[in-house]
Amino acid sequence: MGNKKVAVVGAGLVGSLMAVLLAKKGMQVDVFERRPDLRKAKAIGGRSINLALSNRGFKALSLAGFDKEIRDVSIPMYGRQMHDVEGNLTYQAYGKEKEAIYSVSRGQLNQKLMNLADDYENVKYRFDRACEDIDLSKNEITFNNSSTHGKEYFSYDQIFGADGAFSAVRGVLQKTPMFNYSQEYLPHGYKELSFPANADGTHCFDKNCLHIWPRGEFMMIALPNLDGSFTVTLFFPMKGEISFESLDTEEKVLDFFNKTFPDAVPYMPTLVEDFFSNPTSTLVTVRCSPWNYEDKVMLLGDASHAVVPFYGQGLNSGLEDCTVFFEMYEKHKGNVHALFEAFSEQRVPDGNAIADLALYNYIEMRDLAGDKDFLLRKKIERKFSDLYPDKWMPLYSQVTFSHIRYSEALAAGNRQRKIMDEVMEMDSIHDQWDDQKVIDKILSLVE
Amino acid sequence: MGNKKVAVVGAGLVGSLMAVLLAKKGMQVDVFERRPDLRKAKAIGGRSINLALSNRGFKALSLAGFDKEIRDVSIPMYGRQMHDVEGNLTYQAYGKEKEAIYSVSRGQLNQKLMNLADDYENVKYRFDRACEDIDLSKNEITFNNSSTHGKEYFSYDQIFGADGAFSAVRGVLQKTPMFNYSQEYLPHGYKELSFPANADGTHCFDKNCLHIWPRGEFMMIALPNLDGSFTVTLFFPMKGEISFESLDTEEKVLDFFNKTFPDAVPYMPTLVEDFFSNPTSTLVTVRCSPWNYEDKVMLLGDASHAVVPFYGQGLNSGLEDCTVFFEMYEKHKGNVHALFEAFSEQRVPDGNAIADLALYNYIEMRDLAGDKDFLLRKKIERKFSDLYPDKWMPLYSQVTFSHIRYSEALAAGNRQRKIMDEVMEMDSIHDQWDDQKVIDKILSLVE
């Protein structure tokens, strides 16, 4: 693919990293973005959950030599801090000591990646251009230029669609024969709220945790920002008795929050304004197959696998697409069609697996994170894993701290769950969980 | 909805019947079709499997007083005739005596329905108009007029999208929040072939059967036409060792057919020409939810639930949409929004159920229809059902000869399968299937 002319549609995080990595291979890269240059725009809040970068994301950034710079502007979160209705806290480490996920600002990360890409002479950003259609016979993209209101036409050897969950590039592939596609919404949506920084610039809760208020049918979470604030997100039913629809007056909102999240309300001075002025967003899972069209188009990131945010892997999986693509690129040098086919074939099951894992994790976070059986289960797993790290890596660690394929992690997680189901059936497991017989039981089951 | 101005997008079978039934309620109905008037066009073959109309379809046609006229131009098929590789025949009745599915020409049925609709003063057909977009805020449809090449804009109180599996109306809804959608292709496609009429105008095989050549990974079927011919359809892998892709020379095609369908080849004088000139079509399952957008748009037929053709229920389920809609219309008179919501809520699970049933039936037809265990299972079921019709209606009969909701039929079918699994485990069931103990066993399990 060297010396080729390629397009990346979408100047988001995955698109911009892809542009850098393609440029490093010597390609001429045009990056198209339907919005204006976000580096010149005012900050737009209220829609985007904080990102939690973890190992897969950092590995991809390291291909661009960029992981350290990002780690410096992010905040490590070493575990979940659960808040119950009485304000009692329960802490659960994510992994081993020093293993953390990293809270980072989507906007800041995106700007930095765009600046990095802009430094390459062979990368050109073209903003205000919305992809309208692609003529696949000649790989010609039609753009609508929102400044001139005219149409523009560009042809490329390859087109990378990194244009998000509502991808226009994918919309074109959707009309080709044998393209499987699904979009599935949760009955829950989300809304961003905020805990501002304390007067002295510090955080109102421990900044090195991801905070969760699990409440069964719904939950609230908070991720720290560098400026002392937290970005807070309420995941909540769209409709029904207790829902975004039903909380329709200031009084109802305050009442509900005071009853449900009493330890958080004192830190939410603009709760009511935020609740009514910030948009309610939906949560969609997108799957498709194949991710490529011949040797012409490849989908990446949310465009091919949009997942709900509950495993913190949406961006990480999109960035990992880049890692995997360039690993395979080396093997398939010169044969773009074989490369595209092989990448899609390998990566589709991983996209589906992280989609499933993320949907499952919503139940875990909102429903189980406060549950005694669940916490004991995690404790036993952790103990066994510490004793026999070669025999047991917890599912969360496989997904978050390893580079094991998501599909393999999912399969391993299913095997582990069955084993732990048996362990939790043992007599007096809550009293005797620390006994050697529990370890022996697991040993007998894993082997 | 009386006195309202409504649009039906798509002048196919479901669209045209819907137009008649809406017109009967006094509405002004515009029917839009992207193709020219098929009554003025030459016959277009090679793409559309013969239709098998059954009870659900006839019930809907009877709402338009049209069932008898259609029955007169159709051929009843009372059972499946299976052809094995040696040319041996096995017959399996579809239901009780006189119960049949009816082979009918799609084109003829469509023309008759269009003529019927045209007789209403308040129905107007507008051909050569492809739906391009809908502005949902004012329910205004943009059409591309293929004669003038200009755009046309029409607004309606309600819009019914009956524009098929690749529905443009559904494409608009797909972009609205919380619209769940999936399209899933089988790895198999199909191609139409033909057995012409005998010289004396008779059929080369029994015309009152649906003929099947089940061959495990694939199959061929034939449905009779009034003129003495059969329309033959080969369902076959798209790619792979034995596939549409691999049969790429005349010799390979003839070789394959001679080996695989030896009793059929003598009746296929144009086999090779047909094989290479007729298109290979794909088999898609489409599901979505909801089927409505507020009180503005409603999807019907393949637009909301395209299914694979193996249960012969694609058209029947689409026509049943009309039956169910007008049953509910009476209950919700005056409240279109409530009507649309209730219809979608009731009908979505039925659309999903017939999609699942049709996918399952492909396995049954191509794989099991020649299997001894399977045939015995059907024989025992039939015997029990004849003895205790109130306790057991075979799944096929529920789907084909009843008006039981598809979702209930699917659930009942799953219960029945579990019972028959137990029955088939009985000792020497192949020798003793006719014993009273088998009946007693089933009686003990159904109650």
TrEMBL record, chains A, B:
Protein name: Kynurenine 3-monooxygenase
GO molecular function, a single term: kynurenine 3-monooxygenase activity
EC class (word): oxidoreductase
Function comment: Catalyzes the hydroxylation of L-kynurenine (L-Kyn) to form 3-hydroxy-L-kynurenine (L-3OHKyn). Required for synthesis of quinolinic acid.
Recorded family membership: Belongs to the aromatic-ring hydroxylase family. KMO subfamily.
Gene Ontology process terms (BP): anthranilate metabolic process; kynurenine metabolic process; L-tryptophan catabolic process; NAD+ biosynthetic process; quinolinate biosynthetic process
Signal peptide range in chain numbering: none
FAD-binding domain segment(s): 5-324
